[in-house]
Design a protein that fits this description.
single chain; alpha+beta; OB fold (Dihydrolipoamide Acetyltransferase, E2P); six-stranded mixed β-sheet; about 20% helix; elongated
Amino acid sequence: MLRHVVVGLIALVLGAGAAWAQGKGKDKEVKGTLVKVDVKNKTLTVKTEDGQKTYDVNDDTKFVGPKGGVADEGIKDDRLVPGVVLTLKIAANNRTAHEVHIPERKAKK
């Protein structure tokens, strides 16, 4: 009987560890409309289905264009204007953006 309990506990611990390791390192994806860009404080405010939230960006944050290319201007990119729809990959702290996917530039008239 004791052997069955010990084996069951070991299986439970291994299963929980595997589940934890699988979720670790994965960024949460957030899609929303850009409300505000604060270059000085390095933040982006985005409105989502869950409400409005401000995310930090840093030197490690990747800004990715619609075709997968890196946007060299980062937070100063001219496509980051209020009203555009963004997709962000948010770190586990639920505060820092690891990636910001920005839309195409609008054609000038």
